[in-house]
Amino acid sequence: MKRRQFLSLGVATLAAPAIISRRTVAAEPGAPLPIPDVMEVGPGAGNILSAIKGRAELIPGVESDTLGYGQDYLGPLLRFQRGRTASIDVENRTDDPITAHWHGMHVPGYLDGGPQLAFGPGKTWSPELPVDHPAATLFYHSHVHGRTAEQVYRGLAGMIIIDDPEIDDPLPRDYGVNDFPLIVQDRSFDRSGRLTYDLGMMGRMQGFHGDDVLVNGAIRPKLTVPAGLVRLRLLNASNARIYDFNFTDGRQFHQVASDGGLLPSPAAMVNLRLAPAERAEIIVDFSDQSAIRLVSQNVGSGGMMGGGNNTATLDVMSFDVGDASTSGPVQLPGSLPATVSDLGEPVRTREFILNISSGNMISSMLNNLIGQDRQTMGINGEPYDMSRIDQQVQLGETELWRINADMMTHPFHVHGVSFQVVTMGGRAVNPAEIGWKDVVHVEGPTEILLQFDKPATIDTPFMYHCHILEHEDAEMMGQFTVG
């Protein structure tokens, strides 16, 4: 019997059927989409990002205990400009250590905001970020080891937009008019409508999956868009859920950017799959003025414990179309100001296996069932150790990393660099079609090509890890230096 099949049978034997108590407070869809305020972050003083405890009405009329950067839940949209230093003061006004990790940014390790840089209540971290990154949609969030999942779930996260004044962006870019951030998360609520984070055994092993989909902190909201081309910046900020986005009328749209920035040319598609922490910018033509909904197929976790995929549809948000068009572009260009450059031949190859249960699986499951211990996970058979450097990389060299998993699929993230995907599931892919990435969904043997040009020391190394946040907290992470 294969190990995967054995685990499915073991969990079926150990786990009693779940009894779901539905809440008595309704979560009505259709509230207007909240548009995050913008914080333009430059070299001067006065840019303050305060992590605070909040009381947010995620369900109207019911307050939940939340966290946020400068607000009750989530944070402002941070706007950086390439070539300018971004000076920012991150204050900790919560009760626990926090960080601010600039997910996807090319900065040295001492500015990255990883777990080694956690700082306690009442403290302030004041990094000066040299913005050396192409125009892109990035992600920021707390990254305290063992607490990342709950802190992000409670709201310590937000979106970053990097602008590049050296390029002529031919796409819609009037923020809040024809260019919209969509931070997509799944969350659960108790019977009274309060936000809840109860992991249980399955949540620990497969990552937490919520019952409701929020966009920018609102449950299944509505957005009124102009009749024309609209840019949607999609960020999967869920702890573990994979989305397969499409529109209810089956309309075609075009992807114009991935994690690390613009694609060389728009890519036509009718559905778009994003794993946790992946981003994509898409252009949707609303000139027909049809009211439609954005939905997602409910994608499973690759079959672990019988999880598999199922065909249930998740409502994400709806769109109404106004009468007026905007002064933005009326048609998509055939090409975009981006290229996937030649990184050259790799000087070495490294192998990574993402492991679930490097110890006794059944014992771990029993401990989880009775509320003891947490699921053992790791990479290459080793759980994360903050005092151990797992890899030493040479500055400026190109490497090939081969990643695979022994149980289920995982979104694999590397700090401090954007990479090119060479193969996925053992099949060759065209890196130009996928674009620059910092997260890759590992569903079978996967190869990525990386060139490291930012240093990281023993004291403040870079991380590589699964971006299912519960897995990251449960030790599926390693760290490396660049020098």
TrEMBL record:
Signal peptide: 1-26
GO-annotated molecular function: copper ion binding; oxidoreductase activity
Domain Plastocyanin-like: 59-166, 372-482
Pfam families in UniProt: Cu-oxidase_2, Cu-oxidase_3
Record's keyword terms, sorted: Cell cycle, Cell division, Signal
Annotated Gene3D superfamilies: Cupredoxins - blue copper proteins
A biological process from GO: cell division
Superkingdom of the source species: Bacteria
Record has Phosphoprotein as a keyword: no
Record-linked InterPro entries: Cu-oxidase-like_N (IPR011707), Cu-oxidase_C (IPR011706), Cu-oxidase_fam (IPR045087), Cupredoxin (IPR008972)
PANTHER family membership: BILIRUBIN OXIDASE (PTHR48267:SF1), CUPREDOXIN SUPERFAMILY PROTEIN (PTHR48267)
Designated name of the protein: Cell division protein SufI
Phylogenetic placement of the source organism: Bacteria, Pseudomonadati, Pseudomonadota, Alphaproteobacteria, Rhodobacterales
